[in-house]
Amino acid sequence: MTKMPKWADAVLIPLISIFLAFLLSGLVIMAIGKDPVVAIKTMVQGAFGSSNGIGYTLYYTTNFIFTGLSVAVAYHARLFNIGSEGQAALGGLGVALVCLYVPWPHWAIALPAAMIGGALFGAAWAFIPAYLQAKRGSHIVITTIMFNFIGSALIGYILLNYLKVPGSMSTESTRFGAGAHLPTFHEMLAPLGIEFNKNAPVNVSFLIALLAAVGFYFLIWRTRLGYEIRAYGQSETAAKYAGINPVRIVVIAMLISGALSGLMAINNVMGEAERLIDNAVEGAGFIGIAVALMGRNHPIGIVLAALLFGFLYQGGGELSFWESIPRELVVVIQALVIMFTGALDNMVRAPLEKLFIALNKKKEA
Amino acid sequence: MTLTKTLLGAVAALALTSGAALADPAIIFDLGGKFDKSFNEAAFNGAERWAKETGGTYRDVELQSDAQREQYLRNFAEKGFNPIVMAGFSFATALETVAADFPDTKFAIIDMVVDAPNVRSVVFNEQEGSYLAGIAAAYAAKGDTVSFVGGMDIPLISKFACGYAEGFKSVKPEGKVIVNMTGTTPAAWNDPVKGGELTRAQKSAGSEVVFAAAGGTGLGVLQTAADEGMLSIGVDSNQNYLQPGSVLTSMVKRVDNAVYDAFTQGETLETGINVMGLSNDGVGVAMDEYNAALITPEMKAAIDDATAKIIAGEIVVHDYMSDESCPAF
Amino acid sequence: MSVQSEAGRQATAAPTASSAPIDAPAIELRGISKAFGPVQANKDISITVKKGTVHGIIGENGAGKSTLMSILYGFYKADAGTIHIKGQEVQIADSQAAISAGIGMVFQHFKLVENFTVLENVILGAEDGGLLKPSLAKARTLLKQLSDEYQLSVDPDALIEDLSVGHQQRVEILKALYRQADILILDEPTGVLTPAEADHLFRILEGLKEQGKTIILITHKLREIMEITDTVSVMRRGEMTATVQTADTTPEDLAELMVGRKVLLHVEKKPATPGAQILEIENLRVVDEQGVERVKGIDLHVRAGEILGICGVAGNGQTELLEVLGGYQTGTGTIRLNGQEIDLTGKNSDGQSRRARGISHVPEDRHDEGLILNFQAWENMVFGYHHAPEYQKNRFLMDNAAIKAMTQESMTKFDVRPPNPKLEAKSFSGGNQQKIVLAREIERNPDLLLIGQPTRGVDIGAIEFIHQQIVHLRDAGKAILLVSVELDEILSLSDRIAVMFDGKIMGERLPSETNEGELGLMMAGIAEEKSREAGQ
């Protein structure tokens, strides 16, 4: 009785949505007097045309995979965590503390420690809203968004008063030691004889992100905990009937969610900036919401959606660089994609469903 | 019809820019964007002035992400733009690596010192201009309390506050300077409502003149000061016209001049530290028809006197950033 | 074609057009078809409803009754076929058109604004103008008139939320009458009523019929059809299988028409042979989240090999009783299972530990509790038992393959159709969903089975099967606590019957020594006085 084959739901709808978004974006670009074809070309060329471009695209993608997974975990428990931004920021603090205060001999030791630091801080930041939701019924949407602000203020305060280089104006910490330097793709691929741009920020974190996506799959669909998270997310009353403790699920799901957000810091803080800077997350937490939504809360979808947004970021940056298209317009294009793939999903779905029903009927006849 | 026209125009413009000489200068604005009514916009104005006066062309780009600092620097350098100007101290880390990779390209960074043979570091003696603002405030106030509203709590802003307090106390040694910062995040640069609240609080604590060094937040300070019958002092650009009769003066910081100079010198850009202070018109207090009525002759005389002494080196205004402390607080 | 639709529009605008033949049927549907995607919900349905009669439409869930009525009320548009009201063809594009054609609808779930008064609800959407006052005044007079005429007494100024379900239903009927409906459609109207309230409703309907109104009664209860209708139409799988005079038919015939085969309406079972005391409840009290005491000190016991049926109108504490026993509601008092006390408030008071103690639970609401509708059948088949060691592959992962295999087996055993473990629970019919829950709970071989509303929303064919399974479990020496609002079910399944009213047990009866009348009175809370009167 399925109206539409699964592949159409998972692949065709997003593709059509993206196509529509770009169509509309093209009109906007035309309206400001630029050539949309050149613009799209610039974006694709800029994002995938060189190892440098790919390196930046994958760097952004890594961020979005982490935050997308973070949002999705919570979403499976029907918790709308819009605090990934703040949790990733706190994760950055955790990573920075680990990297700053221990003279790491080698990245292979520093990375696991930094991951623990980031995950712990991110999870801790998610714990408070989770506890308030589970025990006091404070709505998690409200608390997590407020915790983004608190987190941002807290990071600013700590940077300013404890981590900042004395005399420097930038609210940023000192650089991490050489032992905390994560290998970039350039360094990783050189031994294999593959030449990758040495300035591109993509680094070993990308692989960690992919591993996290695989772990996400197993957690959600293969473990008891994932089963309970999904059951709770589908029906709280049923979960209670089955003896699943709602408080426990809310707290654990949010802890995992926060930890995943916090893990993002190994990419942007440890891998790219190699120091803690203020507002290091730069909205990746919010993009994570769109990524999870578009990826249907499934790891494969999330990785693909993250790649799309990585492309939009890097391609958009190139667009504003080479075509002098204002960055506000680049944001408009990004927003159009979010709108079409997220909010206007049904606009594409309904006619497509009808089409498939008509096709099926024809086949039967 | 109009669309085709715009399109044709755009194609023409595109042809122009792509055909431009490769040694054009370039500028990268900070995350605030080039129309921030403050620092970045001042830099933009300098670039525009240069373009208009020389007929030259330049390229500019605004940042969306921190990772783009190094990326854009490299992009410009790779394509042969020279010199490349960065508006803002946040570029320091990126510049350190990129400058070494492109020894033949000249870079200029504003508000920061980066020690490299091909980098010009433009810094301003904001404390000197602020000192003058402090003197003006001391003469304008009947009592002995004035105040300061800063944007984000960073040393640069404390540098303003410190010079201001020192200037004020050079006239009224027993006076009091209330210092408030709007916040610790970049949002503090754009919170006019909170700026207004701080101003009101300072007024109730006795302040008669408020100096706002707070970007967009300062607009709220100036507005509230006008509403509450206080005097205010603007910052960066000449803001005297914003609330005529209420803005005592503006501590101007000629970021536009810094960009203009760098563009004008072109590939032969002089590297090293370029300090812009009172002596070379880098900072100052704005006098125009909007505040003429507020400037008394003895105030004017005191300001002129201090200006001369600072230029001559007889008065050394303390630079907060040299040791992160302020004797006048 | 254009002439036809023109006529239709006229009829819509003026439903009481005098040009209609006097003897025309109130409603005539001709060849109505409606498909939802591949599902043919209504197939070429024709039906004639005579004016001034009560016409029953009976059929299993999903037979297409509701779709048909939704077409009549303008919620759906038929793919084919025509609607004639009083001999005139009409186009019913929306409910507004239905109302102006003289059709009123009383839904199963009332469409009332809870914090509005009766009067406000009645005029809602039918106000005369921008100002409320004149409308309210007019409505008040009219309402009084209607109430007197049809025994529909309701306080016009009472808030809906303060009214009993039966009274709320009357408001729905008044709403329809206020809109000058002469055809009234009632969708499963007795589902939420006590027997007494249901009787009162039927008296109201009789009165309406005498006044010349036409009534369509949609139900799946054979008893109601036999009691009140003049004519009955039976639907099965989207088709109208028969329309007969009620007087000429029997419940058995109707059941056969509904299901398509012979159905046993009464459960065949041997006398019970009760064994050891399994469940003992002493002075159980339950206070809900709002601080209302729902269970007010009850004592019950169930033996092995015995079915204790608890009957009562929904909302009299049965739900909370089941919840406490199931471990997801706290209570005070003492509950012993096999002689050992059960934790009612502490950390061992949850569904997991109850299951570990040998209590299985088929909850009253399988959509909200018993199943996760978006989960596949195999995932549902371990719901609540997902910690069981046999379903674990290792410390971290569940053994999905083993669960699927087990599900496949259970589905075959319990005749779940289609027997596809990968189908989502929501894709099964009500009866098959219930079989999944039943299979899950019975297959754990519990000492005590709690079972609430075992056949709610379940088609007759499946009811028979479910009842048999319950009796089998009893015969295997298990204790069963059955909660149901269906008196028929309680009477035919239980070995002992306890009646619950207002959180208390009104009394216990043996099925052989009581009848629906007595139980109905006890359920309404008036049996105590009655019996006292009888005693004096």
TrEMBL record, chain A:
Bilayer topology annotation: Multi-pass membrane protein
Gene Ontology cellular component terms for the protein in this record: plasma membrane
Segments crossing the lipid bilayer: 12-33, 53-75, 87-104, 110-128, 140-160, 200-220, 249-270, 300-317, 329-348
Protein's UniProt name: Nucleoside ABC transporter membrane protein
Keyword Membrane (UniProt): yes
UniProt entry tagged with the keyword Chaperone: no
Principal location class: membrane
Lineage: Bacteria, Pseudomonadati, Pseudomonadota, Alphaproteobacteria, Rhodobacterales
Cross-referenced PANTHER family: ABC TRANSPORTER, PERMEASE PROTEIN, GUANOSINE ABC TRANSPORTER PERMEASE PROTEIN NUPP
Organism this protein belongs to: Celeribacter baekdonensis
Keyword terms: Cell membrane, Membrane, Transmembrane, Transmembrane helix
A molecular function GO annotation: transmembrane transporter activity
Domain of life: Bacteria
Cell location: Cell membrane
UniProtKB/TrEMBL annotation, chain B:
Signal peptide: 1-23
InterPro entries listed in its UniProt record: BMP_lipoprotein, Peripla_BP_I, PnrA-like
Main localization category: membrane
All copies of domain ABC transporter substrate-binding protein PnrA-like, residue ranges: 29-318
Gene3D superfamilies xrefs: 3.40.50.2300
CDD domains: PBP1_PrnA-like
Keyword Thylakoid found: no
Keyword presence, Signal: yes
Single GO cellular component term: plasma membrane
Domain of life according to the entry: Bacteria
Localization of this protein: Cell membrane
UniProt keyword terms in alphabetical order: Cell membrane, Lipoprotein, Membrane, Signal
One Pfam short name: Bmp
Membrane topology: Lipid-anchor
SUPFAM superfamilies given in the database record: Periplasmic binding protein-like I (SSF53822)
PANTHER family tied to this protein: ABC TRANSPORTER GUANOSINE-BINDING PROTEIN NUPN (PTHR34296:SF2), TRANSCRIPTIONAL ACTIVATOR PROTEIN MED (PTHR34296)
Sequence similarity: Belongs to the BMP lipoprotein family.
Name of protein: Nucleoside-binding protein
Protein species of origin: Celeribacter baekdonensis
Taxonomic path: Bacteria, Pseudomonadati, Pseudomonadota, Alphaproteobacteria, Rhodobacterales
TrEMBL record, chain C:
Cellular component, GO, one term: plasma membrane
Membrane topology: Peripheral membrane protein
Cross-referenced InterPro entries: AAA+_ATPase (IPR003593), ABC_carbohydrate_import_ATPase (IPR050107), ABC_transporter-like_ATP-bd (IPR003439), ABC_transporter-like_CS (IPR017871), P-loop_NTPase (IPR027417)
PROSITE patterns for this protein: ABC_TRANSPORTER_1 (PS00211), ABC_TRANSPORTER_2 (PS50893)
Keyword hit for Nucleotide-binding: yes
Organism of origin: Celeribacter baekdonensis
Protein name: Nucleoside ABC transporter ATP-binding protein
Origin: domain of life: Bacteria
Keywords (A to Z) from UniProt: ATP-binding, Cell membrane, Membrane, Nucleotide-binding, Repeat, Sugar transport, Translocase, Transport
Record flagged with keyword Manganese: no
Any one GO molecular-function label of the UniProt entry: ATP hydrolysis activity
The family this protein is said to belong to: Belongs to the ABC transporter superfamily.
Lineage per the UniProt record: Bacteria, Pseudomonadati, Pseudomonadota, Alphaproteobacteria, Rhodobacterales
Stretches assigned to the ABC transporter domain: 27-262, 279-527
Cell compartments where the protein resides: Cell membrane
